[in-house]
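Table S2 (text version). Query chain:
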Amino acid sequence: MLITGLALLVIAYLLGSIPSAVWIGKAFYNTDVREFGSGNAGATNTFRVLGKTAGIPVLAIDALKGWFAVMLPVWNLSAPDSPVLFENFRVLCGAAAVFGHIFPLFAGFRGGKGIATLLGVAVGMQPIAALFCIALFTLVLLLTHYVSLGSILASLFYATFIIWIERAHHDATIIFAVTIPLLVILTHVKNIQRMIKGKESRTYLINKRQK
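Corresponding structure-token output:
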């Protein structure tokens, strides 16, 4: 069981290490997105640098990495004697995938911020809370056009939903819920500073208003 668990953690990390933004950018646009925009190998920077045609599949792949990671124990381990330990291990697999996205083995350990992968993990762990977060993120993005603000507010809502509305009792689930907004805020410090100064880039889901 120990060997299987370690193998699943490695697989989760390798899943997270799939640099979809880098591979799609280089394969179809002859562009390394890390050399442009924010310099991150994530969905948001791909949208900004390469557009929706590249951004949408990158977003989908990055989210699926997180979802597959937390589903690996469900598919590969027998019925758990301890549901709490099982949930803890699923959270660890999700964390391994996010770590892989931020420090991808297949892209020189230069990845993205892990937001889309975190979303996939959240969907796999708590789909109802994740759906509310997606709705909130979309609303904030439509109103402000700030991906960073939408990500921060959605992550804070996720923690609120899990801890105070759903009243989760698994320690790992609570720690995961608290860690998400902390990680999102820490990885968006520069974005927050730019928003305060009015210099943050805007992303338009529909069409940018013409001046």
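Notes on Table S2: Residues 2-197 form one domain. The CA atoms of residues 18 and 112 lie 11 Å apart.
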